From TrEMBL:
It comes from the Eukaryota. Belongs to the SRR1 family. This is SRR1L protein. It comes from Serilophus lunatus (silver-breasted broadbill). InterPro entries: SRR1-like, SRR1L. Transmembrane segments: none annotated. Residues 5-128 form the SRR1-like domain. One of its GO terms (cellular component) is cytoplasm.
Length: 165
């Protein structure tokens, strides 16, 4: 059981009332929009990111771009394999390069679809990054650590810091 004070939350759409209720439950709200760029440090961390934009997942991977950090990360969110299947390869690799580069080092298990909500949670998976699989990836991928910018991205689904909440 994880103590509430060890649970950090952020959603740029939280209202003041929602933020107050979460705080009253003892949950910690992140003070600013990190655009998904949250490092895990030395702790194993679960990210619940259902229905988030691809850029948030890509940013999260970038901010933890090492086998040691990624192996401490678990993501419940949209299927990375589904993203790959639905996008042209050149777009996927250009705009979401960190997702593309780590796919072979990712274990992904789809959550079962609920018959009542087939159109809502039909693409949710649990992702984790076993250290041995990450270490089998080409060493060159770990040298590329440019921060994602999304300048040419036509389908950007992220609320940027400068856009406010």
């Amino acid at each position: 059981q994880v103590p509430p004070a060890r649970c950090a939350l952020f959603d740029p759409a939280f209202s003041a009332r929602e933020a107050a209720a979460l705080g009253a439950l003892g949950l910690r709200l992140l003070p600013e929009n990190e655009e998904g760029k949250h490092g895990v440090g030395g702790s194993a961390t679960l990210f619940y990111m259902v229905h988030c934009g691809k850029a948030l997942y890509n940013n999260l991977l970038w901010s933890n771009w090492s086998p040691a950090a990624l192996s401490r990360l678990v993501i419940i969110g949209n299927s990375f394999r589904g993203m790959q299947e639905r996008l042209l390869s050149r777009i996927f690799e250009r705009d979401y390069s960190y997702i593309a580069k780590v796919l072979e080092g990712t274990e992904e298990v789809a959550l079962p679809a609920h018959p009542r909500y087939l159109d809502t949670f039909n693409d949710t998976s649990v992702h984790w990054f076993p250290l041995d699989r990450l270490q089998e990836l080409s060493p060159e991928i770990w040298h590329s650590v440019e921060e994602p910018t999304y300048q040419d991205c036509e389908d950007l689904e992220i609320i940027r810091k400068e856009d406010g909440a």
